[in-house]
Amino acid sequence: MLAPRLRLTSAGGGPIVRVFDANWMQIEEYLSRDDRIAVPTGSTEQHGYLSLGTDAILAERVAVEAAGPLGVPVLPVLPFGMAPYFAAFPGSMSLRITTYIEVLRDLLDGLAGQGFRRIAIVNGHGGNSPVTGFIREWICQPRPERVQVLFHSWYNAPQTAAAASQFDPDQMHGGWVENFPWTRVAGAEMPAGSRPVIPREQFGLLDAAQVRAAAPDGVMGGAYARPDEDMKVVWDAGVAEVRALLQNGWVR
Amino acid sequence: MLAPRLRLTSAGGGPIVRVFDANWMQIEEYLSRDDRIAVPTGSTEQHGYLSLGTDAILAERVAVEAAGPLGVPVLPVLPFGMAPYFAAFPGSMSLRITTYIEVLRDLLDGLAGQGFRRIAIVNGHGGNSPVTGFIREWICQPRPERVQVLFHSWYNAPQTAAAASQFDPDQMHGGWVENFPWTRVAGAEMPAGSRPVIPREQFGLLDAAQVRAAAPDGVMGGAYARPDEDMKVVWDAGVAEVRALLQNGWVR
Amino acid sequence: MLAPRLRLTSAGGGPIVRVFDANWMQIEEYLSRDDRIAVPTGSTEQHGYLSLGTDAILAERVAVEAAGPLGVPVLPVLPFGMAPYFAAFPGSMSLRITTYIEVLRDLLDGLAGQGFRRIAIVNGHGGNSPVTGFIREWICQPRPERVQVLFHSWYNAPQTAAAASQFDPDQMHGGWVENFPWTRVAGAEMPAGSRPVIPREQFGLLDAAQVRAAAPDGVMGGAYARPDEDMKVVWDAGVAEVRALLQNGWVR
Amino acid sequence: MLAPRLRLTSAGGGPIVRVFDANWMQIEEYLSRDDRIAVPTGSTEQHGYLSLGTDAILAERVAVEAAGPLGVPVLPVLPFGMAPYFAAFPGSMSLRITTYIEVLRDLLDGLAGQGFRRIAIVNGHGGNSPVTGFIREWICQPRPERVQVLFHSWYNAPQTAAAASQFDPDQMHGGWVENFPWTRVAGAEMPAGSRPVIPREQFGLLDAAQVRAAAPDGVMGGAYARPDEDMKVVWDAGVAEVRALLQNGWVR
Amino acid sequence: MLAPRLRLTSAGGGPIVRVFDANWMQIEEYLSRDDRIAVPTGSTEQHGYLSLGTDAILAERVAVEAAGPLGVPVLPVLPFGMAPYFAAFPGSMSLRITTYIEVLRDLLDGLAGQGFRRIAIVNGHGGNSPVTGFIREWICQPRPERVQVLFHSWYNAPQTAAAASQFDPDQMHGGWVENFPWTRVAGAEMPAGSRPVIPREQFGLLDAAQVRAAAPDGVMGGAYARPDEDMKVVWDAGVAEVRALLQNGWVR
Amino acid sequence: MLAPRLRLTSAGGGPIVRVFDANWMQIEEYLSRDDRIAVPTGSTEQHGYLSLGTDAILAERVAVEAAGPLGVPVLPVLPFGMAPYFAAFPGSMSLRITTYIEVLRDLLDGLAGQGFRRIAIVNGHGGNSPVTGFIREWICQPRPERVQVLFHSWYNAPQTAAAASQFDPDQMHGGWVENFPWTRVAGAEMPAGSRPVIPREQFGLLDAAQVRAAAPDGVMGGAYARPDEDMKVVWDAGVAEVRALLQNGWVR
What we know:
Chain A is an alpha/beta fold. Chain A is about 35% helix and about 10% strand.
């Protein structure tokens, strides 16, 4: 009958990190010795001259780079998030909060049902953070075994924010702080200079048409770009902070 | 002030296809001359020895290859689908149908609101097809402008199914018909031979534990693999059929 | 005190089939020796010159005739289904898919709670079939005892479809294949001849107004009628196929 | 082409009453001259020795007899209602209130969309009456044209209740007041005598198991039966009261 | 460490009644010896010249006065209820019935989870009564321990209604029967005389604009006011009836 | 006919502030000259030795004191919020986030429908803040007139937090920073000293039982009390900051 010859690491001998680079037998083997998983959450939304996928690309990449050396698997990024305020910029998608909650519920229920006990949501989009209200509720529901769920917005976590702020405190949506080699798109040339920052309090009161009027190119303030060596400092801080979280961010 | 120098095609001069390879200005420009978009839908679920992302990988790839020459943009694949029957295979995720409907509603509403009028859902997972019940309902809702929505399961569309059946009529989940170079995973060696086919009617009555018992390695029947040249025939048929749909699948 | 003299069969000695022809004591007695039930699902929607209740009438009748000799009880038909595309034809009703799912959930939960373990949904309306997405999910939910749920669209099941196709392959909505003595209405005279068939792919893209424009009298193609002796052949095949399902359609 | 020879009344010359006895063309013709419709709502639930369909059978029948002479169409009865307290009696079904509301919403939206402006819900089950909370909300929603919705529980409307009370004030669920020739089932023999009445306040606090314990045969009090001539008096009052409602129950 | 010196009654030695006048330790102590709680439900809606909070003020006050001598705690009033028909009167709020059900579900689940077993909802607004449909369902759900839930509309309970009717049978919304010293507002002078009563059947068919047209000052009929000594008789009856319910309204 | 003699201010000549101190005519008059309203949101949950209503009491009071001189009306506080983590402390109530969203939706829809255009939610409970995700969505929905919605957590707004931090940086739930004369309860004596602060990151991972174990008396850290003169400084800052928001917190 079946004589599967599975090797539970990748062909190169290193651990498999992306769930999409594994089959179920490899995940089952992993679960026999660990119970952590990373769940990147992003958004498909305007980022000025940068990719519409910026938040998703960064969340998935930072999770994969952080989890790699630890051998913690990473789900594919949830590419759609909550961004109703960008609806007037074509290509921006948004899930209603009631939808988003149910997606997270299904993912958490599924992971808990398969034996994951420490789930790190590595979030790349500020508009997704209200889902913490649901996660808090989910954690408190009766459950045969305790499951911990971290929600970590990698880009403004303390170490990463500090790494960025040393270069420039103005770090708004679509600006330099999201401008990595892997978020730039072909065929788009970034302007030089910077945009005035839109105050957060004001932004929260604007509807989609007003947001577009206030940020005509989608950048909500700050410089458009910084040198790649600066960006590497920010990125490395982000990866390190996610990795530390996956290692030590849990309650015993 | 702003002097953006956008080129509306990619650096190489070809059209941009993945929405994640574009910024909003490029999508806006596209919408001034076309109103089609492809939305790949997949699943994260066991596929025997193959990648847990098989359905998502294939749906996105077939959409991108088909849409490329046409310059029709392709959203990132929705990586999670409806697969409750695979819950006993670790790494398999599933959205409840009520969740899935709301995700699709939000995506369709968002696309319609931005001016897309012909939406092709390129589906890679059989378990997702009941969402057509919702799509039919969505199409019939009052709306200022008519929006067409196609739901195309690429792998069993007539031409593609015919291309596969010429090689072997046994084509079940996880078997040769999903075994492409881009769905194999490192560190897993496929057994030789084939599995007996589980009849569809019977499968529909099994719960998650019973499904695992009936398909111990996750493959639901048929040969594990076929030569790559056969697979290329199937793939080319799939790409061609999606492309024809994007071109001619609409009502005038 | 109470001295009920129940006879657990009908006055004529035959088994009671319709749940509405029974009281709860008779159902309780039945459950002590069997665990099957038939749940007919129909629709209230235009069928051209035929009754607005065609799908409901046929589903209930075929279930009752099939279940009769077996003594399996039949719930009253759920007369409303999913038919948003017929909204422009007066008298057509439609439940949203989210509503329909909850109705089915409640019925299945209720039946399972009372001890039914093999539930056959005998469906008379194609638009209802996406509910299988929910049924699949329901079957996989944790439950103290396994419950099987079949969803059988009687009119296009293999044997019945074959019986009809021997007469004429054109068998669309509202046409001859639904024209039984018990679906004709008083005061309506059917035209002679036939209507051109509307291709299914095209139909799926039309909204309610377009559907009415494409099928002005509601018939979506094929002949309006066939001789009663032909219809009897189709009907007998349908009854036999449902009966076989109730007997042998289950997994052990 | 099409030369339909419709007659807009039944073959016998009288008006068509049941929607299931009509096709869409006949309903369309009706809507050109009237805007009323009757929607019977019942329940599938234990009624002691009587049919599990008692509430549905009576609601539909009283609506049809009342509407007949007026030519107002009657939808098929919604056979499932809210009866969670009878779950311990096999054959009793129950929709959750959240489900029931959505079913009613869909029916009312559908009827309003097709031009019905005066909708009379003829209700046969007390447990359904909380849906009036939703109906009140529905009436107050913005709508291009005003739509009136009556909710009439035929069995305890003033005239009908008075007709029954002249015979016996004890008229509880499953007792004589529901015992008509058309709610009795074959194979069941009713005991003589009567059951003590369960006080309503107390009943409202009992769960399903307690309800069965309190009403072992399902009858909640009063005599099991009365002479058919008494029942005819009650019935005639019920029919007359529904008819008066259909004629004069509307606001101008 | 902690040395809390709690006294489990109020400073004055009497029992604490309002939950807001207690801390959790006092409620915990209470639960060690009793399992009752009162939950007042009101509405924020027009009451003619009276306070927009009339229903909430009265429900909370009658509950507190009734529960005081018994030492049964009283939750803060739920100030918003179902009143869609008053939307045209500024300051009137309304929850949809689907929202209201979920609020009640959460409160009941929370109370049951903490050990309350006899919950008395003291309701001050007629429009809230359809929630009994949900409460009936909630009571019948499986639950480790039985929980009783009473829904008592204090103002039209038998004794209270009788006390009011001895003065005047015309007792409609916004009229004398709700005009207590604690529902009058500063700066508003009540007209003398009375308003004609709007028949209930007619009222139920009106939308929000029609309701305002039918009751221009919001009073739906009857005298505007009665002497305070009459009102005291009504009030005392209301308090006594709620108290009797809290004491004896339960099933053993 | 009617000759109402309304004075649109209170008897004392000052503006009416609480909606419950007004009738609908007074609110209608107010809307003819202003479009602001304050909506306090609280929670019913353990606060150590302090009132279970602490968050609701403070939110309503700070709103009323702030709005008073401006004449902006204040709705009654929504006394229930999201606090699943305190479920193990008796008397704590919690709405699920899906419920809370619908309550807010109904309130915002109602206020917008009546002409309010600037709505300030004055929040007293940290657990409620995820509702901002919904508010952001609500603001972006199509609407005939623009409506602004502020969500202001008064206790940790910049000025108020600064006023408190000058006394002591340790300001956790249930501690001195919530200990005002109007949140203390009779019969409870506060311990002296302080509790060690539970780190926020850790707290977010705990379920209800673990929270109670980590904070045995419900206080999550910091001193139990401070002198009333210090508390007055904090309070005055809170009132001033809410007032400034009501005056200047809007976008033009």
